[in-house]
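Milestone M4 deliverable, item 7.
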Amino acid sequence: MDSDSLVLAGSVWEIERSNFDRELPNLLGLIERCDFIALDFEFSGVGNDPRRGQVDVNHKPTLAERYKEQCASAETYRIMQMGICPVKWLPDAPREPKYSSKPFNFFVAPHVERKLFKYDRAYLFSASAIDFHLKNGFDFNKLYSRGCLYLGRQEEAHIQNLKRQRDEADSKEIDVKEEDIPMLEHVKAQIAEWIKTREGNPSEFLNIDRPAGYNGYQRRIIRQYIRREFPQYIGVWYDKHLQVQPIDEDRERKVVQKREDDFQKVLKVQRGVRHLIDKIMELKKPLIGHNLFTDLIYMHHMFIGDPPEDINGFRTFLQQNFGLIVDTKFLAINWSETNQSAASTSLSELAYKITSLKYPDIDDFPVNIEKNHVAGYDAWSTARCFVKLSTFLYFAGSEDPAPPAETEPCLDVRKKEIVAALAIRPAKAGYSRLVDLELADKKKLRIPYWSSNFWKVFGGRLCVNGTIEGEFTI
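Output delivered:
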């Protein structure tokens, strides 16, 4: 098998909690080797206002207001399904050059390992989201019973802080209630008697128990009592009894290390699908989505933490932590091929419209069924639209998009780059040129190189319908 191919024998396109750890190295390897990644999410709700759906004819929100609204929504609702589709160009594929795609779908469950200090989450749905997903065959049982785990960076920092607090609390002595003093004195007498009888046999230990058992508070005060009264010994709690042992420094270090290792293993498992987001950010792979302004805000809240206070802070975060970001909806509104209707730029409509564009070739979806509004399928559909549209717009030309509508000073340099790139674009060639290229040299039919001026014009520009500006420019 071609080492550049993204096809992995034995991999499945729907990843569940039971096989996530097994598939994770393959998934990370695909992200490392791919040229770009298409992403899609399904949400438990969008919009945080109970009056949502009402029309205020006297007010159209600004981009900054829409950002605040979506941040509030992301705080209330969650990503419950995630689709990623790594894609790689194969110029020497057996029959003809093509793009190799590998879509994956993940239900994202709210569950948290109970070992993580009983950390819990609220998980809310909007009624409209439930109705929408039920109509599209969403399996809510699979979400809860087999969904993959996740843990945001801010959540992880909070859990790490809980652990530090617990460790510090364990090392501090707490006050003993007067009614528990006889119990401690009884423990002291047993240990003192055992120490007298164990000379010459240093490997012995003492088990202490009582019919009534011990609660958590009693276990703690007994341990601290032994630490203070018998500093050469340590108390180890088992299920129903306490075992007193001579201190072994090497053993104690191993016990502490094992406790830390076990904690880190649980954290790693809990991170779940965040491993994939972290890898995308680490490598700054080009990220493709359809109408993805909301997706990026939800992704930040779920996998990073609270989004920046204002939209310029969010812009800076994206610039610093991601590579090129492309919105296929923005590409679609600038696709003006005369035989196609521009009335709708929804993903399903767009996917239907591009069926006339044969090249570049991209792998078919691995399951022979159309699954609109399933995140893994929509991620693949987004990748397919991206490949076709960007190639068409590059070779055949398009209407020149207007410079960004935002007036923020931080965008001055970006606007100049876009205007300069537009000034040197070749004249619109028309659809016939693309047909000629399809017939003449298929190897030339591929998305523009990432260094191309094309991406200064079409990259980093996200549609935000219903706002005054209509576009968010990164």
